[in-house]
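Section handout 9: paired folding examples.
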Amino acid sequence: MIKLGSHVSMKKPDYLSGSVNEALSYNANAMMIYTGAPQNSFRVPVENLKIQQARKRWLENGHSMDDLIVHAPYVINLANTAKLETFEMGKRVLRNELIRSSAIGAKYLVLHPGSSLKDTLENGIDIVVEGLNEVLKEGFDVTVCLETMAGKGSEIGYRFEHLAEIISRVDYPLGVCFDTCHTWDSGYDLNNLDQILEEFDRIIGLDKLHVLHINDSKNVVGARKDRHANIGEGNIGFDILSNVVHHPLLKGKTMILETPYIDGLPPYKEEIKKLLNRNSWGL
């Protein structure tokens, strides 16, 4: 079965229950949430999130809590060697997100590896490893999935080797979230999808790939800019993204759309339909 959904909102008064209803309205069998605004660390108490109502409705519709993905807020930057307070804050926020994800019943938390700013990539990776080891030693039933990045500025994670090194040096299990826009923008030409998946498997291992973000890109391959486009409206194109969604090596992986709203409205129901019914779109 293809597991395909989108990012959905989580806001008062319905919180997670409203998130589930939104996902179901798109005919999705997967979804991704932030447990609060992604730009900051302010969070309402987990007791307010209407978790039991949400879980009941999601499961009653035949879906799995494994396919409810949480994305960590952007304020976390474990690669910041310049400001110790930013590094320490990142660890606190990550720990809190893991606690909240566990309370919700999510299995995977997607995390941007971070940016080393004016320091070297090597030093950035070192402190990411340190931070993850310090947080994960507490023991959580949620797996942190490092996201493939586009390579803007001093981002870590725009090469598979970066993620492989972090995974090999962290003492606790980690996974990966493969973002098609980011991977394309970082220089991996998805026209050669079989070769890229073979490379990923050789360097990291497809067994560690748990989540995919399915996004088109406004940029040419290798632009290192990270600008998402709607499915079939960018430089990756519908054919390639459909091949990703239907690729036999990716069967059973949770796939999430993060494409832009169109005229203020979410495009996810139609994009999910297009990707699932590929034969009706000339493939």
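Moving on to protein 2 of 2.
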Amino acid sequence: MNNKLVNEITASQIKKDVPEFNTGDTIIVSVRIIENNKERIQAFQGVVIQRRGSGVNKSFTVRKMSSGIGVERTFPVNSPTVAKIEVVKKGKVRRNKIFYLRKRAGKSARIKEVL
């Protein structure tokens, strides 16, 4: 009984408009930012280095290079602050979590593109 109620509530929280993307893909995540009384959307473009969780708890980490410094952000997939997820290009990687990108820079950090 209790488990059924939890499943119903979580099913209503799951977003349906999330595109299919995997580790190694380059994506643009549009995030809603509220400052004072104003709301704006900020884009964060980078490579997905991990996906984790399931259902409502699903999240992913995106890494980008900003002025030579690696920046990583973790986003919950079903968060209301995530306005839109857009896949820029599909990447071909052999692993599910590509943390080895943290140690690499320049040409060695490139990911092969799937056409």
